[in-house]
Amino acid sequence: MSSSSQHSSKSGSFTSRLASVFKSKPGGKKLTKGRPDGCTYDAGASGSVRQLTQSTSKSAQTGEVWNETEMLHSLLRRDSNDSLASNNKRSNWFDAGVNRKPGEDILFRLPQGLWEHIVSYISPADSANLAFSCKRFHSILGPGPWLALDLPENHQYKVNFLLPMDRLYPDHLFCFPCATYHIRIQKGEERLKHVHTLNLIYNCPNPKQQSKARITPGWTLPFVFVQLAFRGHRYGPEYGIPLDALNRRYKCRNSEWTHQVRYHFHQGHLLLRVVSTCFAESQLPPSLQRHLLYCREDYTPYFSVCAHWRDGELMNNCKCALDHIPPYKETIARQLQKGPQISLALRNPNVFITLCQKCRPMRRCPECPTEYLVELKLAEDKNDPDRLRRFKQAIVVTRWSDLGDGTSPDGPEWKACITEGDTGFDSFKSLTRRGLSGTFESQSGVTIPGQRMMSLNPQNEKKGEEGHNWY
C-alpha cells in the first residue's frame, strides 16, 4: 500500500467512524433492559417501537388530558349508570351526616337559653315542629313544646301541628274536636245514611261536636265524609272513599219531594248540587203552599237550603212560582158537570210557563257561596191513575254550594254555609263572575237557562226567625 492511500484512510477514519455510529441499521432494534419509568409505548405495523406520550394525566399549562387511556375512560363514564351510581353514593355520603357534624355543633356553641328565647317568639305549633325536626333541637328544647300543645288554649295549634301528618295514617281519620287520630271502624265502606240510622265512622267521645251541613230533612253531610272524599282524591282509595259514594237519589219520607244530590271537585274545592222536585197543584191557597214547602217538624224547607234562607226572597220566590201554575185541562163536558159556566181557556191551557221578573232570576246568597234557581217543569206523575192529569207541573228548586277545600271545618266556605250568624264572608267578592251553577254544570256539558244573577237578600235585612217573610 502506498503512503498516500494510508494517509487518506487515516484522515477519514474519524468521520467514517462517527457516521457509522449514528447511522441507523436497517431492520435493527434497540435493546433496552426495561420500559423507562413514566413512558408508554406503542408498537407500529412495521414492528418498530416509538414513544407516544408521557404518563402525566394533564398538561401543566393547558390542563388538557394527554393520557389516551384516561380520555377513553372518561368518555365511557359520561352519562352512564356508573356515574349516576357514583353521584348517588356521594349524595348518600353527605346525607349520612359526614359533613353535617360541624353544622350541628353550631347549635351548642350559642349561649345557653338563646334557643328558648327564640322559641318564645313563634307559635306553639312551630316550636313543636322545630323540636320534631332533629334530635339536637329535641335535646335543646326538651318536652316543653309537646306539653304546651296539650293545653286547652292551644287546641287550634295542636290541630295545625297534627293535620299535615294526614298522609301517614291511612287507617285513621283526624278528629277536630278531639285533635287526635281515631281508627276508622268501616275502612273503605263508609257511606252516608239517614240521621235516624247509627253510622259510626270512628269512636269519638265528642260526637255532638262534629260539624255537619244540612242537606234535606233527615239527611246531613258530616264533615268527616268531606275529609274522606278529599283523602281518597288526593292520596288514593286506601285513604278515603270515592266521590261517587256521596251521590244520592232518594224520596223524602214525610212528603212527596224527591232529591238528587251530586258532588264535584273543582280547583281543590268540593261543589254541591241538590235538585229538589215536587208536583204542585194550581191555585193553592197560602196555607197549602206552606204545607207544600215546609216541614212540620222544624219548619224548615223540604228542599236544600243554606243557613241564611230566612233572610231574603227565597221563600217568596217559591210562592210566586206556585202562583204561575195554570189549572188542569178540562173538557166542556167536565165543566158542565160542575156547573153551567164554561171557560174556553180551560180547554187548552198553556203548559209552557214563563215565570215573572221576580221569581225567574237566579239568586246568590250574599253571606255564603250558595246559589238558587226556582223553576216550573212539566213532568209525568206515574202514580196518578187519571191519564188525563198524569202530566203535571212540578216545582224544581236547585241549590249549588261551594263547601271549601276540606282542610278544616273552620274553612271560610264551609263555615259560612252552616253558620247562621255573620261570618264576614262576601260571596260577591269571593266568587268569580262565573257562577257556581255554570262551573258545576260545565263539567257534564249541560247548560242552564241564561238568567240574571241577583242577590238573595237585596235589602240586606237580617231578621232571621224574628221576621215573617220566610213563613
From TrEMBL:
InterPro entries reported in the protein's UniProt record: F-box-like_dom_sf (IPR036047), F-box_dom (IPR001810)
Ranges annotated as biased composition (Basic and acidic residues): 460-471
Signal peptide region: none
Listed name of the protein: F-box domain-containing protein
Region (Disordered): 1-63, 450-471
UniProt source species: Oidiodendron maius (strain Zn)
Top-level taxon of origin: Eukaryota
One Pfam family from the record: F-box
Polar residues bias locations: 48-63
Bilayer-crossing regions: none
Residues covered by the F-box domain: 104-141
Regions of compositional bias (Low complexity) in chain numbering: 1-16
